[in-house]
Specification:
heterodimer; A: about 500 residues; five-stranded parallel sheet; B: about 450 residues; alpha/beta; four-stranded parallel sheet
Chain lengths: ~500, ~450
């Protein structure tokens, strides 16, 4: 599909496509000002660089709204949030945002609402003078105060868009800071990552941080029988399950990062400055000598990938599989583990797999052909789509606010039975998902809490999986990964479908 | 695990009062690395303007600022709900390099065509202040083309804390006031209710009380706000300002320009709520109104008191900590908790002034710890040292309390229960009671060894 103006507008799958206001005036492909359930003729939203073919029409139904320059109800968050989450998964680490105070506070508030755990994030608290003269002084003061107050083993500094824009050289500042304090004992590791939020979403920020952490900590040495796992943005319950699976394979391993304990811990008798748990820096250092690393990410670009970096620096064996959501994706992951460890899938997990298939059989009539809209981070959408397809649900739209340019390709690979007409949209916002939902009338929405207003407006039930889950308490404990995770997802979905069937039948669908 | 000792940062000591002679400092920029609970001036502007429900609110900048403020607050509307949508120019790298003016122009124009709002507020975020987009010129241009107010809000985050953002919001609001009929006559016995955000429908409760005592409400800013009503704000005889300072700048401008005086009010707790009604009657010096206020208070208090009694019985002698955004709310909370028989042993705010804290110190019992612009470590330290049973604060404070096994009540912008007015006092009592008296605390290590009384 291409824009009507022909002359100035390239096809929508051209990554460079962006119409100026003048172009729009000339070609008339700008917004009509009508109700946004009527579709436009071209894609103008600068932030949407890549769409799959036939992305905005499905079965003759228009799926996106008018071509808005603005993002309306974003289906993404900013890069520093992802970085703070990654840093929280390093043992003894305090996340630190270099920029204005508000960024740290907003991100804290946002994460606390999901995890319901302390989420202290320091800030260099820029004022006007920092913007003019640079944030060096504030960074130094901030580091001093954080070290004094929190006594962290590690400090993870991420930059905000402000610090990026004024061009603060955090690497240089940190070097200066360390050399000025050379005599000081117990100076924490200071990790840095550049997270300009105009260059990517929270999911990107997370990956940039993981890569930076590995880059700054992993060191070479003789190979060890040791596996590194990069789990991606998953729930604490997922991380715990991964840990259990790895333990059952009886191989030395490290999950980087692992925020399962820091972000889903017990009640304390005393306030802990930094919650216990997380991946120790010494384990991350060992990644340079690992026998293999596994990255649970599909849409990741090489330049973002911590695994690729290890490959480049240390020629580490790298396995990349998508998030293990559903049987087939989990099989792939377990196959890799079998291959690396030389052990078969532990009996416990094999049994779980068997019971899961038994449940698939028990519930297949409820799921078959039911239509579903899936949204969230790109890797989540890939895994969830593959899972839905294997249980007979029919995804009618797969959407993400991220824009790797690889979403479509990755979904098609992970879910080969997906209807070729099913639109896969990157760089989308909730206003567009809403248009699609009105037109496609799916049975279910699957995604994070941000689909709540859409669900309420359309009356389409929302099943809350992924991040963030702000309006339910279960978010951090929702297990998505592995056979056990698939079981949890399956039970939730089928229970919901059965409930819907029961509720919608007014002649008395009885309880057995 | 060994007990972790929490010490005050040297540079923070003057912002904490632990008894003795009062010599606090306040209104300072947050200390870098202190993990302040404060936000930024963008947040302040957004909080104040956001509830205006027939306007669109467009955040100019990268996506985070818009994402984190999408419908997170409980400001309700009796009509349009444009305020619950989140619009952003979602700036990309090339916009930062080449400037975002073109994108902003398109964004505002298209959104106005689509949503047909009564006005548009355009919030500048941090990097706009750096790259120097001429937001004002774009706003002017669109305003001329579309014929509705398109108002820039100077809310770059680095300009300060929430307080500076409040000022930017007031400047923006004042641009609407009097726009249509500058010489309109004052409305008899009328007021503006300023500084309430209609969380959980609170402004409807307050409005009802005033109307029952014979007062006409010209505009509410900004809870359940409408652009047209705000235009007419100059016609009221009196501005009733709630909240420490969020809209006091607007009230000052209204006083200068329209000669409308202001009084302060708080709607939390029986004492402050009653005072808020009597003060208005006193201002108008109107006996009928005074009797009206008396009638409203009598009716409401008669309903309320018997219902409060059982809660008070359970809560008497329990200890509380209070930490809020503005200082004014703390005063009300101290009084409300006293109504329930509780003692406040820790109190503070993000943005109070030295005078506010002085007053607070006088209001509280001796030995109460007073905190300005504090942080999780200090809060945890005092909550534990003072062995409180209840903490009142916002989302960021909640896990501090919960993690060490202390009851917690939200008294912030995200609350879903109305806590204002007489009915609000009952809701408050219920919430405090269910927080403090829940049997779950017996399992928390802090209480595990103690009998739950």
């Amino acid at each position: 599909m291409s824009c009507n103006c022909g002359k100035t507008c390239a096809p929508v799958d051209d990554a460079a496509h962006a119409c100026t206001a003048d172009d729009k005036a000339k070609c008339g492909c700008g917004p009509s000002g009508g109700n946004f359930t009527t579709a436009g003729t071209a894609e103008h939203r600068d932030s949407t660089s890549v769409h799959s073919v036939s992305s905005s029409e499905a079965g003759g139904k228009k799926l996106t709204g008018e071509n808005f320059t603005a993002t309306r109800n974003a289906c993404k968050l900013c890069a520093p949030l992802g970085a703070c989450l990654a840093f929280r998964g390093i043992e003894g680490c305090l996340p630190f945002l270099h920029g204005s105070q508000g960024c740290a506070t907003y991100i804290r508030r946002y994460m606390i609402s999901h995890f319901r755990e302390p989420m202290d994030i320091a800030s260099s608290s820029f004022g006007e003078e920092s913007v003019v003269f640079g944030g060096r002084r504030n960074l130094f003061d901030g580091l001093n105060h954080v070290i004094e107050g929190y006594e962290p083993a590690v400090i993870g500094i991420a930059t905000t868009c402000l610090a990026e824009t004024i061009g603060d050289d955090v690497n240089m500042y940190v070097k200066e800071y360390i050399s000025a304090d050379a005599k000081r004992v117990n100076l924490p590791h200071i990790l840095r990552v550049s997270t300009p939020s105009y260059a990517g979403s929270h999911a990107d920020g997370y990956q940039w941080a993981v890569r930076a952490i590995v880059d700054q900590l992993a060191v070479d040495g003789p190979n060890e029988k040791f596996i590194g796992i990069f789990p991606g943005m998953v729930s604490p319950a997922d991380l715990r399950h991964l840990r259990e699976l790895m333990e059952d394979f009886e191989m030395d391993f490290s999950i980087v990062p692992d925020y399962s304990d820091p972000l889903d811990g017990p009640v304390w008798g005393d306030y802990h400055k930094i919650p216990a748990g997380g991946t120790p820096a010494r384990e991350i250092a060992k990644l340079g000598r690992a026998s293999a690393v596994i990255e649970l990410a599909s849409t990741i670009a090489d330049k973002q990938s911590a695994a690729s970096l290890l490959d480049e620096k240390f020629s580490t064996a790298v396995f990349r599989v998508g998030l293990p959501i559903g049987i087939r994706q989990t099989d792939k992951f377990c196959n890799v583990l079998e291959q690396i460890t030389g052990r078969p899938l532990p009996a416990k997990h094999d049994a779980e797999r068997g019971r899961l298939i038994d449940c698939y059989v028990d519930g297949h009539k409820y799921t078959f052909g039911k239509e579903v809209v899936i949204y969230g981070e790109e890797d989540f959408v890939v895994g969830m789509t593959a899972f839905c397809c294997e249980i007979g649900l029919k995804p009618v739209l797969c959407a993400s606010g991220g824009k790797s340019g690889k979403l479509s390709e990755c979904i098609r690979e992970a879910a080969p039975e997906l209807d070729p007409e099913t639109p896969i949209l990157e760089g989308i916002d909730f206003a567009e998902i809403e248009v699609a939902a009105f037109n496609l009338k799916p049975d279910l929405l699957i995604g994070n809490s941000k689909g709540f207003s859409l669900s309420r407006k359309t009356g389409i039930p929302l099943i809350r999986f992924g991040f963030p889950i702000h309006d339910r308490i279960s978010g951090p404990r929702t297990l998505h990964l592995g056979y056990r995770g698939a079981q949890r997802l399956y039970d939730t979905i089928v229970d919901k479908l059965m409930e819907m069937k029961q509720e919608s039948n007014d002649i008395g669908y009885t309880y057995i | 695990m060994a007990e972790e000792k929490i010490n005050l940062l040297e540079k923070r000591k003057a912002q904490v009062h632990e008894g003795g002679e009062f010599a606090m400092e306040a209104e300072k920029q947050s200390l870098a690395g202190s993990v302040s609970q404060r936000s930024c001036s963008f947040c302040g502007s957004r909080v104040v303007l956001y509830p205006i429900a027939d306007a669109i609110h467009i955040v100019h900048g990268p996506i985070g600022c818009a994402s984190y403020t999408w419908d997170i607050r409980g400001a309700l509307s009796s009509g349009p709900e444009l305020h619950r949508l989140s619009f952003s120019t979602d700036m990309q790298e090339k916009d930062v390099i080449y400037g975002g003016e073109g994108k902003l122009y398109n964004a505002i124009s298209e959104l106005i065509d689509e949503y047909k709002p009564s006005a548009a507020f355009i919030y500048s975020t941090c990097i706009i202040g750096v790259i120097g987009d001429d937001v004002e010129a774009i706003c002017k241009k669109v305003q001329n083309e579309k014929g509705i107010p398109v108002i820039p809000v100077d809310s770059e985050g680095f300009k300060g804390s929430k307080k500076e953002g409040y000022k930017a919001a007031c400047d923006a609001l004042f641009k609407i006031v009097g726009e249509d009929e500058p010489d309109a006559q004052k409305v008899p016995k009328s007021v503006n209710i300023l500084g309430d955000f209609n969380l959980a429908g609170e402004i409807w409760i307050i409005k009802d009380y005033y109307e029952r005592m014979g007062v006409k409400v010209v505009s509410t800013v900004s809870g359940d706000g409408r652009v047209d009503e705000i235009r007419k704000a100059g016609r009221a005889h009196l501005n009733i300002v709630q909240c420490s300072g969020s809209v006091s700048n607007l009230a000052k401008m209204l006083e200068t320009e329209y000669g409308t005086p202001m009084i302060r009010a708080s709607y939390f707790g029986i004492e402050d709520m009653s005072k808020a009604l009597y003060d208005v009657a006193d201002f108008f010096d109107d006996d009928e109104m005074r009797m009206g206020a008396q009638r409203v208070i009598k009716e409401e208090v008669a309903k309320l008191m018997p219902q409060l009694a059982p809660y008070r019985k359970d809560l008497t002698g329990k200890k509380a900590a209070v930490y809020t955004g503005g200082a004014f709310k703390v005063f009300s909370l101290v009084r409300s908790l006293r109504t329930l028989g509780m003692d406040v042993v820790v109190a503070g705010s993000q943005t109070g002034s030295v005078d506010d804290y002085k007053l607070l110190t006088e209001l509280c019992d001796p030995g109460t710890v007073i905190l300005d612009d504090t942080n999780p470590l200090e809060l945890a330290k005092y909550v534990k040292e003072k062995d409180v049973d209840l903490f009142i604060g916002g989302v960021k404070e909640r896990p501090i309390a919960y993690k060490i096994g202390v009851g917690f009540c939200d008294h912030n912008h995200e609350r879903k229960e109305a806590l204002a007015g007489f009915i609000g006092m009952l809701n408050f009592a219920r919430e405090v009671h269910s927080s403090v008296m829940s049997p779950v605390w017996q399992f928390a290590p802090r209480r595990a060894g103690k009998k739950l009384d």
